[in-house]
Structures are given as structure tokens and as C-alpha cells.
Design brief:
This protein is α/β, with parallel strands linked by helices and about 400 residues long. It folds into two domains: about 10-175 and about 380-395, Rossmann fold (3-Layer(aba) Sandwich), CATH 3.40.50.11930; about 180-380, Rossmann fold (3-Layer(aba) Sandwich), CATH 3.40.50.2000. It contains 16 helices and 13 strands. α7 crosses α11 (about 295-300). It is globular. The protein starts with 7 loop residues before the first strand and ends with a helix.
Amino acid sequence: MKTDKHKKLIILGGDTDDNIGDRAIVYSMCNELRNLDPQLKISILSNNPARDRVFFGATTIPRSISHQPEMFRNSRSSNLVLIGGGGLFQDDDSLVKMPYWGIRTALLKAANPKSRIIGYSLGVGPLNKPISRLFARIAFSCMETVSVRDDLGKKIASSLTKKPIHLVPDPALMLPSASEESAIKLFKEHNIPIRNTTVVGVALRRWFHQKGTIVPHRYAVKYRLRKIPGSRMCEKMTGLLAAVLDRIASTYNAVIVFLPTYTVSHEADDEICRQTMAKMISRKKHLLKITDPMLYKSIAGQCSALLGGRMHPTIFAASAGTNIVGLSYNQKFFGFFKLLDLEDNVISIEDFVSKEQSEILFKIIAQAIEKRSDIKPRANKLAERTRTFNQMIIRSLL
């Protein structure tokens, strides 16, 4: 009988269907690993198998309960299971998340004790609840290798396992960019001036519902299981941001371009951007809905600075050479900005709203606009660190 000698791996990660950040992570993983081994066969999970088979160049397994047996069969026949990257090991949005990944990892190992499971550039923390830390321990115990994407995650992971923890920066840093021409064309189509113009990108998100509840936010919205908290704080946030962005627009004669990245109903980044735009006085404001992460990176590269209320827009911008400012809803912002020696460029969104830190945010954005950027070499250095880890993975398959 003829056997298939091609090496196989399966990637189990976040919401690659709708979240542009997660799509960038998985695309970068697939692209870089295949560059190292063009014969490598990669499988992923998807709610849109036909589309994602083409986009990722991978075998797609439907993301549904009925297709779990197929996922386990694929895992058993794979040489390697990669869990990650992205913020999988945390409990600030749902207390179910960590048990889900802990049980899932344990079942994969139980189904095939010889399976090789690697935690790949995991976002670890916060893990505030004992039950979350317990299931993280279980997951780590099933992994051959554990890697996390920043030092804060490494500190937490090190307290939950005796295994060495590798620091592997977010794989989206390796994302290729669409052409500069495609970005300029999109700006022109929306009548957005960029030549000799200060352009400030803005990527916002809601954050007030992240209270560590049992029911994940997406299901609470979908099935109307509870009232979604935070409307008052959200109203205050959009007002404060509108005032800061108006001041930036006036001071620098700047165009403000809103760039939402997670626009499904339970996240609705585009809606929070529109609410902020509606409160702005300046007329130099635009909204672009982009679904291709490579085009998003190219657009970010045309900006003078980017304000990110989600982390991956800042990753795209930094790797494209654009100065970044972070509005953090999670420790991962501080971890990523620290890797770039930009700790002073990120503030807590909760502090921004509750302490009304408009002046602080204005000064950080202003400095990002005015300061000559050397951020791209630093981002490239982090990307090379992730590529080195990928090389280790491929060598282990030989």
C-alpha cells in the first residue's frame, strides 16, 4: 500500500471566521510554515470551509459539534497539533473559556497519547479564578512545548507548569502586506486624501461587558440571555474619544480614518466607531470596513499614527512602520507594547474613561504623530523570533 509521506499538522485557534486579528494569526502561521516546508499539509477549523480553503490554502474542517469526530480523526493522523496563537488562555471575558481549552486539549491527548501538542504563541492571562488556573495546568500538562506571546503571559504560565516557557511573539507580526497601490486606491475610492496629509487610524471596540461571566458574550447576545452591561460607560467613552480626535484633527489638520476589525453583531466594532464619529465636530472623518488582514496592514502603513482599542490593528501598524497608541482592555496590550519598548504609549481604557484621561491620550497620540518612527525594525526583530520557533517546529517533523 502506498503511504502519504507528507507531514501533517492541524491548527486549533480563535475565531478565524470573523475576527481579522485571528485570521491574520492563522494566515501567518500557514504561510510561514509552508515557506519552510512547501509539502506540509495543514488543517484548520472554519465556519466557511469553501472560502477559507482558498484563503488559508489549508484543509478546512467545519467548526461544529457534528464535525468534532472529523477533527479528532484529523488530529490523530497529524504529526503535530498547534494550539494557538491568540488570547485563548484567559478568563476576563468568560469563565467557560479556560475549561473549554483545558478539556479540549486533554481530550486530544487522551484520544491519542502519542500525539504531539504544542502551545503556539498563546495569549495567557488574566487567569483570575482558581478554576481557570486549574484547567490551564491541565492543558499545559498535555503539551510537549509551551510558548506564549509576551513576558506577562510567560510569568503566569511559569507559575502553572514546570515546563520551559518559550516567548514567541504574535505570528501576525509576520503577516505580508498588500501592495501600497491597493491601499492608495481604496483611499481614493472613499475620497480620503493622504498625500501631504496627516492620517490617523482608529480601531475601537466595546469592552464593558468583559466581566468574567459564565456565559460567553457572543451567546449572551445571540440568545438574549442577559442584559449586556456598560451602556453608560460606553456612552462616556465615545464622547471622550470624539473630543480627543476632534482636537487631533484640529491641531494637525488630520484626517481620522476609523478601521473596525470585528464587525459581527456581538462585537460590532463598526457601530462603536460610528457612535464616536457621530459625536465628532470635525468633518474630516471616514470609516473603512476591511476584511482582508493584508490590505488592512497596507492601509495601516499609510497612516501617520494608529490608535488601537484592539491589539491586532496595532500589530499590523507597527510591522508596517506606523507609530502606535494602545487603549488596553487586557494585559496583552502592555505585554506587546513592552516588547516594542513602548510602554508609555498604552493606557488602560478603564482608566481613560473613569479618570477622564483625555489630556494624557491626546499627548500620546500627538507624540506618535510627531516622532520619527523606528518601530518597524523592532517589529521585524520580533517577527524573526517567531520564525526561529517555526524553524524548530519544521525540524522536529523531519
